[in-house]
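Let's inspect one such protein example.
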Amino acid sequence: MPDFYPIARKFLFALDAERAHHVTLDLMNLANRLGILSLLTGANRSTDSADSSIEVMGLKFPNRVGLAAGLDKTGSCVDAFGAVGFGHVEVGTVTPRAQPGNPKPRLFRLKEHEAIINRMGFNNPGVDGMLSNLEKSHRKFQGILGINIGKNFDTPNEDFLSDYLKCFEGVYGKADYITANLSSPNTKGLRDLQSEDTCRDLIISLQAKREEIKDSHGGKLVPIVIKIAPDLEEGAIAGLGKVFSETGIDGVITTNTTIDRDLVKDHPLAKEAGGLSGSPAFQKSTQALATLRSNMDEAIPIIASGGVMSREAAEAKLSAGAALVQVYTGLVYRGPGLISEIASLG
């Protein structure tokens, strides 16, 4: 199959970044409804074979590559992302109440660095809105659905548990796994929740809520995952590794976007507030992964996100101790061909 994405990218990159994002999702959904999305993207369905499948957190993933949270914030494009080859799709971040996010512009391309800066701020339709969208968009996808949850921007940190528990209970029946996002740099004070004591309290509370509601969902035990930032000090990551081991968390995602601008400091957009993703995030994110892996129970799987722009980058994440990888910015710059490259990894 010829690769049509370079042509599509020229068109999309001529648009404002956020506008291009919405146009892409709309076109994907349209092509999927017409039954031509796999053909247009050259999706390799053979990667869904038993040779590519892997069991993680007690779930069978068709392959090792998934969509990171943040691209489908509303849960409206799950089947379409499945059609282009993702083994798992993580939607969100979703908050209890709908919120518009930060003022625009809030999404910027740093093309020379194959990077993106975003300060979206958890713009999402709220739990009820997302569940409604998932009813329409998650009908044919045979992979794993993750739902990423957070707190509303105006919920004080001292009341954060209430928001996470509301989201957790709300999405429980629909999710294959649930990720608690404590690491976005775009909600004021959120990263302060990554302390050992706060993480421990959150994990224990979510586990207790799971025990409370599982019987009403046929005994289904949905895995609980925590997503951490790459900007934590090595000692802080090691401390969290101990907490994750003690509590028996089901999985960890390393990492969210970075606020570090060292590798892009000369770019005109470098001073834009928000999280940096893409190639410049790879090294720091992978170091955080390796640090966590060496300080956490080996039985707890890690999902690696951050600078996965090539098959080689995915292999490096797996070598550092990850079980699965996720892409976001790599999809923007490389297109669907990147999915097939990574999905073929055993």
About this structure: The CA atoms of residues 153 and 188 lie 7 Å apart.
